[in-house]
Design a protein that fits this description.
- This protein is α/β, with parallel strands linked by helices.
- The protein has a single domain, classed as TIM Barrel (Alpha-Beta Barrel).
- α2 packs parallel to α4, α6 packs parallel to α8 and α12 packs parallel to α13.
- It binds 6-O-phosphono-beta-D-glucopyranose (BG6).
- 6-O-phosphono-beta-D-glucopyranose binds next to loops.
């Protein structure tokens, strides 16, 4: 029976800016997150403010030992986290790194390895140094490729012996939807042209390929992947025009995977540029650089949407960054994200058919409000709704493996409760581990095992035989 392979990487994922806190400790500089107190769609603040929950987040910076011990208790094989660029290069453009920042991640990775947990590291997860946003307008500037190279060289040299799995940019396609959070582009979105955005995209793509090249040179045996926000789209109706709408919407996402996997711009994108008067400034060597393709493709998957040319038949919906129409066959989370486990099987098959590269699901999960209760004298959360969501998604991962898809691993999102990215709140929780912190900033930061903690431990122990 084809099922989860023996070396399947089971685990969970977080990002530095959403869990670490300690936003200005040990020489850390500010990132774009420090001026986004209310998340992706909130107003940008002038500077850091106490109402930004990410300043302290869930204080992973001081709790990492306890947290990683709990992940080990669940049997994690892999732990995805990001390095905060601003702990290493506080402004982003310094010549020399900050030793205290480097030492912190040494300690985190050592702690993982102590328990046999492989770190999976996102190099840039929505935390571009604010200095680079202010001085250079983020990834609009070619200079960022140079700064990113210095950052990559520093962390690859330092952690190459400890970290085998790397992701370049979190949800790299989000640059087109959230230029400030994703790309540190300070210019307001309504003043940016498509030309500006695609030029910034080009810089990130060159930087991503450069990271793959450098990673392979400096860390023999390392595996480097891209990370795509997996927007899965269905036609709302069988109208052929709806299918064309799906094709077009799909390409907005797939173009990023196409370039990372095939090493060149796809023809449909070049034609789009030509039709829209967009011309990408390429430097000598860029085309060669893009040929350094990824070892695997990773993606986030939370929900699916519909595309249609008949908007009157449905209502708009979406997730963090995806925008589309409601699917009458699906239910949604309390935050309105449509829940679609079978869409994950479809997405895995679609990506594998297209690229024949190993796939890694590096985010998936249910954001929900939890209630802390006492059972047999222990505080816990009876989160059957979360177990149900994860159970149905993992069943579909198993189906995809049966279909023949090569899946390397699965890291559910926010394995420890953390501050949400889109709304910057604690109320929306994803974890197996509850953290006592509230939206008003109160809370003891104590950790508690939820019911899903024990469930996931059994899933891992049985290598997915018990789901
Ligand atoms: C992904 C991001 O888009 O979705 C994460 O990579 C984010 O950073 C996750 O936290 C869930 O979104 P949210 O808004 O519920 O935190």
């Amino acid at each position: 029976m084809r099922t989860f392979p023996d070396d399947f990487l089971w685990g969970g994922a977080v990002a530095a800016n959403q869990c670490e806190g300690a936003y200005n400790e040990d020489g850390k500089g500010l990132s774009v997150q420090d001026v986004l107190p209310h998340g992706l769609r909130g107003e940008r603040a002038e500077g850091p403010s106490a109402d930004n929950l990410k300043q302290e987040a869930v204080d992973f910076y001081h709790h990492y030992k306890e947290d990683i011990r709990m992940l080990a208790e669940m049997g994690f094989k892999v732990f995805r986290t990001s390095i905060a660029w601003t702990r290493i290069f506080p402004q982003g453009d310094e010549e020399q790194p900050n030793e205290k920042g480097l030492a912190f991640y040494d300690a985190v990775f050592d702690e993982c390895l102590k328990y046999g947990i492989e770190p999976l590291v996102t190099i840039s997860h929505y935390e571009t140094p604010l200095g680079l946003a202010e001085k250079y307008d983020g990834w609009r500037s070619r200079k960022l490729v140079e700064f990113f190279e210095r950052y990559c060289r520093t962390i690859f040299t330092r952690y190459g012996g400890k970290v085998k799995y790397w992701l370049t940019f979190n949800e790299i396609n989000s640059l087109l939807h959230a230029p400030f959070m994703s790309g540190g582009i300070k210019t307001p979105p309504d003043q940016l042209t498509e030309q500006d955005l695609y030029q910034a995209m080009h810089h990130e793509l060159v930087a991503s390929a450069m990271a793959v090249k450098l990673g392979h040179e400096l860390m023999p045996g390392a595996k480097l992947g891209c990370m795509i926000l997996g927007i899965t789209v269905y036609p709302l109706t069988p109208d052929p025009d709806d299918m064309i709408a799906v094709m077009e919407k799909d390409r907005e996402t797939l173009l990023f995977a196409d370039i990372h996997a095939r090493g060149r711009y796809p023809k449909y994108l070049l034609n789009y540029f030509e039709d829209h008067g967009i011309s990408i400034r390429m430097e000598p060597g860029d085309e060669e650089m893009l040929k350094h393709t990824v070892d695997f493709i990773s993606f986030s998957y939370y929900s699916s949407i519909c595309a249609t040319t008949h908007p009157e038949l449905s209502e708009p919906t979406g997730g963090n960054l995806s925008r589309g129409y409601k699917n009458p066959y699906l239910k949604a989370s309390a935050w309105g994200w449509q829940i679609d486990p079978k869409g994950l099987r479809y997405t895995l098959n679609r990506l594998y058919d297209r690229y024949q590269l190993p796939l890694f699901i590096v985010e998936n999960g249910l954001g929900a409000e939890d209630e802390l209760v006492t059972v047999n004298g222990e505080k816990t959360v009876l989160d059957d709704y979360r177990i149900d969501y994860l159970h149905h998604h993992l069943l579909q991962v198993r189906e995809a493996i049966r279909d023949g898809v090569e899946v390397m691993g699965y890291t559910s999102w926010g394995c420890i409760d953390l501050v949400s990215a889109s709304t910057s709140e604690m109320r929306k929780r994803y974890g197996y581990i509850y953290v006592d912190r509230n939206d008003d900033g109160t809370g003891s930061m104590k950790r508690y095992r939820k019911k899903s903690f024990w469930w996931y431990r059994d899933v891992i122990k049985s290598n997915g035989a018990i789901l």
